[in-house]
Amino acid sequence: ALMSKEGRSMMIQGDEGTVGVDISLWRTGYRTKEAGEMTFDVMDFGGQGVYMPTHQFFLLNRAMYLVVWRALEYPKEDTEEELPQVGEMICQWMDMLQHRVPGVSIMLVCTHVDTVASQESLDMQVEYVQKTVLEKMRTTRRLVGRMGDAVTALRGADSFRINSTDGTGVDALRKGVIEAAQDMRWYGEIIPKSWMEVEEEIKIKRDSGVPIIPWGEYERMAAAKGLSGVTLKIATTYMHETGKLRYFGTWEKYNSADRQPPLPASPTSADAQRGEDRVSDDMNSRVYISPQWMIDVLKGIIRHNFNFLLSHFGGASPRKAPPDDGELAGHT
Predict the structure, then answer these.
(1) Which of 69-78, 162-171, 176-185 is predicted with the least confidence, judged by mean pLDDT?
(2) From residue 196, how far is each of 172, 192, 193, 307 by CA, in Å?
(3) Phi, psi (5° rounding) for residue 209?
(4) How confident is the model at residue 277, as a pLDDT?
(5) CA 257 to CA 259: how far, in whole Å?
(6) Which of 116, 159, 234, 315 satisfies CB 3.0 to 4.6 Å to 110 for a cystine?
(7) For 23-56, what is each residue's pLDDT tens digit?
(8) Angle between helical axes of 229-241 and 193-207 (0-180°, round to 10)
(9) Sorting pLDDT into bands at 50, 70 and 90, what band is 303?
(10) Contacts of 181-189 spanning 24+ positions with Cβ under 8 A
């Protein structure tokens, strides 16, 4: 609904929700004085708990997060049991963001407002979530101290109220997202030409079907554009934090082609520490230039519904299914 021209979406039938992560491009249609029409890279994260561990691969520092929760349909007096679960879910997302990308901003979005039994019940739910998030922010701030970065909920932790099927609240959410993006400290940042040239080389490589390149190749590609040492680290960090690529290595250990580690051998249970070292070497030796490829791989491994996992592999023959709440399908 947010990205559609009509400001509405079709009703989702059954289990048609997001599997893992979906990436799309959103051109706002709103023109701003500084930059004309704005363009957002949108990542839609599936809400099922089975995806939480793999979501962490795609969390970005230079991003704003919409934490979406579904309003409960029941009357005010019947929500006491389930409403704390909603608050707990939101706090889990805040914890994950604080752990991986401390200091990012979130906006709260309440959906399915048309299904709530009464306006009084909806108001109570939104107020409960607001109080829960504000308390979570205070707790996090105490833990990180004055010098640390804490996840912050914008708009005083109040939730946008949305009915996606008829468009209620969608226009207000659009404007809120755009205004929040313009207030981010990176908005209007000037990007060096050399960084953009490396981005273009990566795009060409990615469009040719290459999802991963060795660190040495990436380093030579960047050197041809004048990036090396500290400038390469800064440029790579920028591209990692904006989702242009993903690099999970440590700069201190391997930062030049002549020290690039060999591909690791298969780990053995007899030597756990050396196994961890091999994984570390593997992460240092590769640059993932296609986040979409990573997402597609994970979609083929983890699903919140076993039938969807089978259909991903072209309708594989039925077998004893894992629990419906999802699990790592190692046998596949």
Answers:
(1) 69-78
(2) 33, 7, 5, 42
(3) 100, 10
(4) 46
(5) 5
(6) 159
(7) 788 888 766 555 567 889 888 887 676 777 777 8
(8) 60
(9) low
(10) 181/38, 181/40, 181/64, 182/32, 182/34, 184/62, 184/64, 184/105, 186/62, 188/34, 188/35
Give me the count of residues in the chain.
332
Q: Which two tokens stand for residue 163?
A: 């009915």
Q: In this predicted model, what pLDDT tens digit does every residue of 95-133 receive, in sequence order?
A: 999 999 999 999 999 999 999 989 999 999 999 999 999
Residue in the structure block whose two tokens are 């209620």: 168
Structural tokens at position 199: 């981005």
Structure tokens at 151: 């996840």
